[in-house]
Amino acid sequence: MAAAPVWSVDPRTGKQREQVAVEATAQEVDDDVRAAHAARGALADRTVRAAFLRTAADLLEGAKEHLVEAADAETALGPVRLTGELARTCYQLRAFADIVDEGEFLGVVINHPDATATPPIPDLRRYKVPLGVVAVYSASNFPFAFSVAGGDTASALAAGCPVVVKAHPDHPGLSELVASVVRRAAAQHDIPDGVLGLVHGFEAGVELVKHPLVSAAGFTGSVRGGRALFDAAAARPAPIPFHGELGSLNPVVITEAAAAERAEAIGTGLAGSMTLGVGQFCVKPGLVLAPAGAAGDRLLKSLTDAVSDTEAGVLLDHRMRDNFVAGVAERAGLPGVDAPVTPGAGGEHTVSAGFLTVSAQKLAAEGEYDLLLEECFGPVTVVARYEDEAEANAVLARLPGNLTATVHLSTEEEAGGGRGAEILAELTPLAGRVVVNAWPTGVAVAPAQQHGGPYPATTSTSTSVGGTAIERWLRPVAYQNAAEALLPAELRDSNPLGLPRRFNGRLER
After folding, report:
1. Which of 74, 85, 207, 245 is catalytic?
2. Assuming Cys at both sites, which of 168, 218, 249, 377 could form a disulfide with 152, CB separation 3.0 to 4.6 Å?
């Protein structure tokens, strides 16, 4: 039977644009994984792989106009947004190149023998080595930054791990283009094409995570799809790490004092955050705990005005549009749920932003309103009005894990008065990043970044953004009583590579 075609589709019309590939067979997946496995040695030299990452960034920038045009045709995200995302992607590649050059990620620790310790300490030397081939599952909503050359791929290559990417069906043509650019960069450093494989198709994705030569996987997508792959990774004869970003409600708490102090600004800011990118950000605020009363009313008036002025937008594909329209209708149909601005279908191919309001008391106990505590992908949020702190806390206590949790405090609370510190402590168990007096949309590529949280936000405690994302693709190895001549250069006393390390308890740089 002929392999199924892979079509590039215009989300603005729903029409097929062109066939860009065919879905990979099990044999083709096997070929790509084996080619990646064979390419491991080409990444062994840190100098080579850092240069490779920088060249990839340079070539992607050089193809900017063509890549942005291709991305917009398949995602409708717009040239301005996509140009910024490509710049972020290139910055991320260069940041990982710097990390590779610095070498601190290797975690070198050397202990000389100490017969006086109890028990005695032998000669021990520890560092981190690459896991092997990494499977990367592209995201729909970030066709550059969380896709073929995105954070999972960049961090895996930086760790010394070849990658096989499962392309997302919302931007298959772009995926092919980006993969070709990265392979051109590899060729400039005598790295084989197999260092970056690319496959299409649902079944190919399943085959990929089950392949015995795949050593780890990174995923960005839905709870349903990510959990299925996570379970498949765990069910293997030799389970592998699966770092999945699955879903997040990203709750926001607005204190009564903050609403009284700047209701209008908070309302406008919330509107901008929840509608950014047509609400297709994984860190979109999906639940807002706002006070009942006059200050909360002013906040809702500001939110209503700002959301009402938001133009209809195009979602990434028509399946997402259908799910959004059905999801908001089901939520709006619950008793006691109001829609000051009704979200839903904005036209034949577009959606309109809106928000729902409900009493926080209805969310405090298990029941039919649990639907409002589930992520709804698209430009909508739920504002739950609380009468007192106990009611707000009861809702927070029911929430699953999140990528972010946000609190808006008054000037006095931010300075340490009132319950500001207590609220931060209450939000910390819920999320990987706690935001104060700002909005969660926008994830900076920075060493201190944490993009990951308790399940179902992610399936591991790691981050997929920032320098420490590299740690997902490494494992520690210790050598005991090995002669200097046998040791890797990274672990020799003379430190020929000039690496930062901990030597007999002292940090050396």
Report:
1. 245
2. 218
